[in-house]
Amino acid sequence: MSRKKLMNAPLALLLSAAMIAGCSDNGGGGGSSSGAGGEQAVKKQDITVSIYDRGNVAQDEGTIENNRWTKWINENGPANVKFVAIPRTNSSEKINVLFASGSAPDLLFEYAPTNRNPLYDQKQLMPIDDLIEEHSTNYKKLLEENPLLRKAGTKSDGKLYEFGRINWVEPQRGILIRVDWLEKLGLEIPKTTDDLYTVAKAFAEQDPDGNGQKDTYGVSISGRGEITMKQIFGASTKWVVQDDELIIDWDRRHAYFSFIKQLYDEGIIDRDFINDENGAKAQQDFVNGKVGIYPFQEGNTVNLIKNFVDPLKQNVPDAEVTFIPLPESEFGAFTPTLTNPVQMTAVIAATAKHPESVMQYIDFLIQEDTMERLAYGEEGTHYQKNGEVIEIIDADKHKKEVEDITLDMRMLQNSGLTYNKGNLPILKFNSDPRKEEYQEMYDLQRETYLTMDKPYPELTISEHMPALPKDLATSDSNAEKSISDLWMKGVVGGTKYSIDQALAEAQDIWQRSDGAKIEEWYKDWYAENKDNALLAEDIYAMVAEQLEMYEELRQEVLN
């Protein structure tokens, strides 16, 4: 993907609903059912297409399978589409039933590779190389211009099976710290894990909120923030490359849990963190002004402001926060999780009767005018244009009539190729009095975490990790659950059970759970695929191009 192609991309479509950017009211979408000159109607074939059921379609809008937008697609598209609802919360169960019963949708949209990969292993998917070559125009061009899409969608037999999209990359994790607490206690931004311990301890023990009570925590580690904390030590995965081999690493996890145990033993963290599985209590503690260092998972800056910073400042008006890079541990300093820039989202069932019509439907979906219509609705009804910026007329109406229905119809939306200056918060929120604040924090978040001068803590984005064979995957999952319990036992075990004991028992469980076979499988996979798999260096290369484009767009607006 070249920078020139990015710069020449059409009006932007953002991945996140909260960061909507631009479109045109081109109602057609290229789905003509007439032949040359309109003389002969072309018969549309019947195809089935899955769609997630999130349970959020308003009753007066119909159902996720039958609504204004499914009708629009069938009126304007190249096929008669029957939509098959799949529960979003447990898609794997419904997918397995559909494929096992011979009722698989011709086109399956599914985010989770753990649900797509078994279908490939069972030979339930159709290779699509020839189909694209012979029956596609739009997706064929997309592949030619973005070869990483082919790289990410190709399976171990060397054939292409998955359709995907190019996403605009944003940092998905990070750490917020109370700057006012640092200043009050005369502390500096923590740059290492030793610094992190020192600052967290002071936040917990030196009454930074000034209420005369010992009721603050240094750092939170529950919920989604747990992975962020693990990434400080490069411990969010057990697989690391060493001496050009992919091996299991116990040292990083041992160091992470030893660090957490120290925080736990000294009362620096909430000792009830184990019961806060979804992180709800940690979030409340932060917005109530009781946590000084808050690791988070939230890729949308405006959401981060509205859900975390605003509530904090409402409760503590003098509170000031900033982002900090992941502190450096003995294993180095790392970049936190990034948006997956090359995301595979769809496959064709081997039983599809009209695959050429499925291919034509995909070409129709990824057309600019189709995606714009599905993203923004109708001009004058749902949105209006202000230069390069799209302004939603009524947010509640748009959510009900467009966003809640079409979100999963846009799983092939290429936001990474269509980003323009209309996406910048200072333009996108042109009528919002906080637009400069949004832009400032958006830039600060990117400048903190998109530096690309630190290694990624995992081999690649988790969605691109290889899938173990079913028997080994079961052994791996069972072993990890037991091992995770041991680590937690070590953290809360005081002097009766140490992290060293947890490590010894964990390694024993691993060896008794096909650990050696799993290690050998990953070692062989890496040796055979390291030159063809989509790894962290490919992701960094894409980010570098997007950063260059973003800076040019930002300078255009500032000037």
Based on Cα principal axes, name the global outline.
globular
Write down the overall mean pLDDT.
Answer: 91
For the termini, the CA-CA separation is 27 Å
Number of H- or I-type helical stretches: 22
Give the fraction of residues assigned to helices. 40-55%
Determine the strand fraction and express it as a percent band: 5-15%
The helix/strand class is: alpha+beta
Number of strands: 13
The poorly predicted ranges are 1-40
Strand order of the largest sheet: 6-9-5-10
Please give a structural write-up.
- The longest helix has 23 residues, at 470-492.
- Strands 6-9-5-10 form a four-stranded mixed beta sheet. A three-stranded antiparallel beta sheet has the order 3-11-4.
- α2 links the parallel β1 and β2.
- Helices cover 44% and strands 12% of the residues.
- Mean pLDDT is 91; it is low at 1-40.
- α6 crosses α7 and α19 (470-492) packs antiparallel against α20 (499-511).
- It has helices at 3-7, 68-76, 91-100, 113-121, 129-135, 138-145, 147-153, 179-185, 193-205, 225-232, 251-265, 280-287, 301-315, 355-365, 368-376, 395-406, 425-428, 435-449, 470-492, 499-511, 515-529, 536-558; strands spanning 45-53, 79-87, 107-109, 162-166, 173-178, 217-219, 239-242, 245-248, 291-297, 321-324, 342-348, 383-386, 389-392.
